[in-house]
Design a protein that fits this description.
Number of strands: 4
Strand order of the largest sheet: 1-2
Distance between the termini: 54 Å
Largest sheet: 2 strands, antiparallel
Strand content: 15-25%
Number of domains: 1
């Protein structure tokens, strides 16, 4: 796919259409890592948040606390 570099304020940018954003699972405001390789190839890699086991445990505990009564009824 060929894109043209355009002026955006005092910077330059490349517009990504909705299909590309969907394929890359990106949305406005997401962070990407930009890497320039030999020969000038530019790679954009989505920065995905890493969820730690501790965060998962904390979330589960919070849900269990918030819905304790419902969980007991379902058990």
């Amino acid at each position: 796919m060929i894109k043209r570099i355009t002026k955006v304020g005092n910077s330059q940018g490349i517009m990504l259409d909705a299909a590309i954003m969907d394929l890359a699972r990106l949305k406005v405001g997401d962070e990407v890592n930009l890497t320039v390789h030999e020969g000038g190839a530019i790679y954009l890699t989505p920065v995905r948040p890493v969820v730690t086991p501790e965060e998962v445990t904390a979330t589960i505990k919070g849900v269990m606390k918030d819905y304790q009564r419902t969980m007991r009824r379902l058990a």
